[in-house]
Amino acid sequence: MSKSLYFAWVVALIATLGSLYFSEVAHFIPCELCWFQRICMYPMTIILGIACFRNDRKIAYYVLPITIIGGLFSIVHILEQKVHAFAGICKQGIPCSGEYINWFGFVTIPMLALCGFILITISMIVTLRNR
């Protein structure tokens, strides 16, 4: 089994479980941009799990576009929270500018999601190079 493929699956699993913890246990209501990030992350838990079981390294071709799109949503969300010029992108429901957590002054939920997408992207590139 490819270590980078397994690592990507573990990252997706932790990100999914962390997201579910924030919403279901901590009762943080997800905003619109959070939902788009979840739409990108949640299926990767299953897709990468199956790829690990089958040792299917070609899955990287399918996962990379999803991680890049999810990462872009995370960047927009971080900009919404941290840069006042981007405030107001998300106007319906829960405001996307809200910060449920702010560890060390910069680690917010979309920052955690971006880290997950970046780690999975790097893992997929390593997986493709090791083919």
Automatic annotation (TrEMBL):
The chain crosses the membrane at residues 7-29, 35-53, 60-79, 103-128. Its main location: membrane. Gene3D superfamilies: DsbB-like. Pfam families: DsbB. This is Disulfide bond formation protein C. It is a multi-pass membrane protein. It is found in: Membrane. One of its GO terms (cellular component) is membrane. Belongs to the DsbB family. BdbC subfamily. The gene is bdbC. Keywords: Chaperone, Disulfide bond, Electron transport, Membrane, Oxidoreductase, Redox-active center, Transmembrane, Transmembrane helix, Transport. HAMAP family: BdbC (MF_00287). GO terms for molecular function: protein-disulfide reductase activity. One of its GO terms (biological process) is protein folding.
